[in-house]
Amino acid sequence: MDLESLVYKYKLIMEVEQEGQAGMTRRYPEEIQAWWDKIGKPKLVVAPMVDASELAWRALSRRYNAQLCFTPMFHSRIFSEDPKYRAENFFNIIDPKDRPLIVQFCGNDPKTVAKAAEFVKDYCDAVDINLGCPQAIAKKGHYGAYLQNEWDLVSRIVKEVRSVVKIPVTCKIRVFEDVQKTINYAKMIVESGCFMLTVHGRTIHQKGPLTGLANWSYIKAVRDAINIPMLANGNIQYLQDVWRCIEETGVDGVLSAEGNLQNPAIFKGINPPVWDVALEYLELVNTYPCPLSYSRGHLFKLFHHLLVNEEGKDLRDRLATASYMSDLLEMTHLLKSRFEPYLTGEKTPSKELLQNLPLPPWLCQPYVRPPPYVPPIEPKPPKRLDPVLSNKMKKRLLRNPRFKVVKKDPNSLKLCRLCQNPQGLKCEFQFCKKCCRLKCKAEDIDCPGHKCFIKSNRIKAQEWLQRQQATATIIN
């Protein structure tokens, strides 16, 4: 039995087990359960991705077992006010086969988000409120994860959309550092009328080079605390991760974002050649047109492992400067002709090309972001351990030539306990002057050896302030 058959068999077993567990232990409110049954209880979901989960990519993902797709995040104010923005991003092509579908909006005004949702209510199965975007543009626009401390506003947005548009509302959030705060936040959203909750197991600070791993234990804690359908997001690189996440957290389904972009066949458990997937996608773009920047971005993700080495450098430059879809197609065929001999065995790849990847670089596979570089902390050298005389000592010798200069052995100096500078001989804490002052300020103490009287000075200042206040009271 091949790997694909084994994965498919495991998938069926997991689905039966999950259905049985849900039927025995979890039953959602009637209205929510009816909607959840209607969209097919999806487990394999394509996440909302800005400029990436457009119709052509959703169609490609559905070919490879995606059961539910999100649109890219749309800005609610622009979507509600600009007909051109609506046409270019959503209404240019409406495909009845693009279902079930959830449209995601961002925004911080309940009426504006509800107005935007009214435009799409007949063309989707739910509207999602983005409460998880951690990017700088979300901070500047005050939406996404930067609303997570404004619970009243979040609640009003959910209630407004639900009451005005009359279609299911879902939300996507990130976790807090505190698990109990995350649980309380999720409960508040559920009580506001949310039909389905997606929890990304990373905090607002885990992004870019500091992304790190998502915390599934937080997702499980939220799953155990709420009674609506719930999806998990984070750490999904292969199909096995999907079933492992469902098993460990108890969620109903799993979103894939970066894993899906690197391998749109992730939900089928296969790793096809990158050029085959790229050509299939470009063919769909002819049916479902999208901006060139979207397609270029997808090809960069698919071809990443082939473009980072010297053999694909010229192709990377060619892809970056492409001006038409025909250029992308031509470049893809060129990449195929260059690297397909490695797939067929006609050529032997070098170690540089293979890059110690788990799979050959010409197959679709996840990109593992390297951890941020943390330079080693080296102790600072002491300011002066050499026998060279200081300016102060030189002046003293000019005044008194008979003064004896005793040159101390650098190795005999006692060093500060915190740094490599010489410690004060009279300091009871065995610190240098700089470190001693920091300690006195932090702990509100005095050091007679360094003549650092932080505590005494603060007491005197407080007494002076009390005298001033008493004098002002008498005068009044």
From TrEMBL:
GO terms for molecular function: flavin adenine dinucleotide binding; tRNA dihydrouridine synthase activity. PROSITE patterns: UPF0034. Keywords: Flavoprotein, FMN, NAD, NADP, Oxidoreductase. It comes from the Eukaryota. Pfam families: Dus (PF01207). Its cofactor is FMN. InterPro entries: DUS-like_FMN-bd, tRNA_hU_synthase_CS. Residues 46-276 form the DUS-like FMN-binding domain. This is DUS-like FMN-binding domain-containing protein.
